């Protein structure tokens, strides 16, 4: 039988493409045979080797890498456009920044007590109030200051707080809640209802009187417009006009007992003590009405 000879000595060191499939296994001792190259892979290195990063030329892969590595607590704030390099996580909130405000229902350690919200907060709902900001005479301001100091001295256990003169007002309505679609129509209705109302000048007042809010969570020391006077009648006419608007919008009218007053001191506990104020030149004036909805105020000029 003729022997089958195979030549493994090609000039470039590669096996000829025409090598028969029946070729026998080469003899490792043959000097003309090159052993196949081998590459040993350490299994442990495969387990510990980090995954390769996506090539920078792939913008989608690069964006995915940036998003997956973003651990900042910036609340989803957008980065500047055109930035191609990864952004470092945001640093923790600086201790120099002011703390977030407490909810209105909570108390904190500040000297002045927190007022308690009368209505639960609902998105799109706004507390609404119509009132007359008043201008107090100089004699009245002095009398109010003296009486507030007297209240603090009489009851040291009660924290009595003076209302700033810029915030003195006579209410023309209860505080009600309106929703966003009603706001513009309500303001225009109040403006139309008060279009013939006249300003009040030197309206005589008397007091003091102790009053409380509907829930008796706050107490007030107040002065009232003297009944059966032209000024009292004029303000009653404004209350009647605003009551008509409240009825149209499905809200309660003003209190049946018309105590037209302004509060100049308040406390979270019942206010006790007090003495009648001097009656010399105690008067107020007002030439504008205010419709306050949330934090927005609309001024309505009186004639």
From TrEMBL:
A GO cellular component entry from the record: nucleus
What segment(s) does the record annotate as region Disordered?
Answer: 1-112
- Biological process (GO), any one: U6 snRNA 3'-end processing
**Keyword Repeat on entry:** no
One molecular function GO term is: lyase activity
- Keywords, alphabetical: Hydrolase, Lyase, Nuclease, Nucleus
Which ranges are annotated Low complexity under compositional bias? 75-97
Domain of life (superkingdom): Eukaryota
Database matches in InterPro entries? Usb1
On whether Glycosyltransferase is a keyword of this UniProt record, the answer is no
Protein name (Swiss-Prot/TrEMBL): U6 snRNA phosphodiesterase 1
Question: What species is this protein from?
Answer: Prymnesium parvum (Toxic golden alga)
Organismal lineage: Eukaryota, Haptista, Haptophyta, Prymnesiophyceae, Prymnesiales
């Amino acid at each position: 039988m003729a022997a089958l000879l195979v030549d493994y000595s090609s000039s470039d060191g590669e096996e000829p493409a025409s090598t028969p499939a029946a070729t026998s296994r080469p003899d490792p001792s043959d000097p003309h045979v090159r052993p196949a190259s081998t590459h040993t892979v350490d299994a442990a290195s495969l387990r510990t080797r980090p995954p390769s990063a996506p090539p920078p030329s792939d913008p989608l892969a690069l964006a995915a890498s940036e998003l997956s590595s973003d651990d900042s607590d910036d609340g989803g704030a957008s980065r500047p456009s055109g930035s191609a390099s990864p952004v470092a996580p945001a640093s923790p909130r600086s201790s120099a920044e002011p703390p977030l405000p407490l909810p209105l229902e909570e108390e904190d350690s500040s000297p002045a007590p927190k007022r308690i919200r009368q209505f639960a907060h609902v998105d799109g709902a706004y507390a609404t109030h119509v009132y007359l900001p008043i201008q107090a005479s100089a004699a009245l301001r002095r009398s109010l200051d003296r009486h507030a100091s007297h209240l603090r001295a009489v009851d040291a256990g009660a924290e009595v707080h003076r209302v700033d003169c810029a915030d003195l007002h006579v209410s023309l309505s209860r505080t009600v809640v309106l929703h966003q679609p009603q706001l513009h129509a309500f303001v225009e209705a109040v403006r139309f209802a008060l279009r013939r109302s006249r300003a009040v000048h030197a309206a005589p007042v008397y007091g003091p009187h102790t009053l409380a809010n509907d829930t008796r969570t706050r107490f007030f020391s107040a002065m009232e417009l003297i009944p059966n006077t032209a000024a009292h009648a004029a303000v009653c006419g404004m209350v009647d006009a605003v009551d008509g608007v409240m009825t149209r919008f499905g809200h309660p009218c003003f209190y049946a007992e018309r105590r037209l007053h302004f509060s100049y001191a308040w406390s979270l506990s019942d206010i006790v003590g007090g003495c009648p104020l001097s009656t010399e030149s105690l008067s107020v004036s007002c030439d504008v009405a205010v419709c306050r909805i949330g934090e927005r105020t609309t001024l309505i000029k009186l004639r």
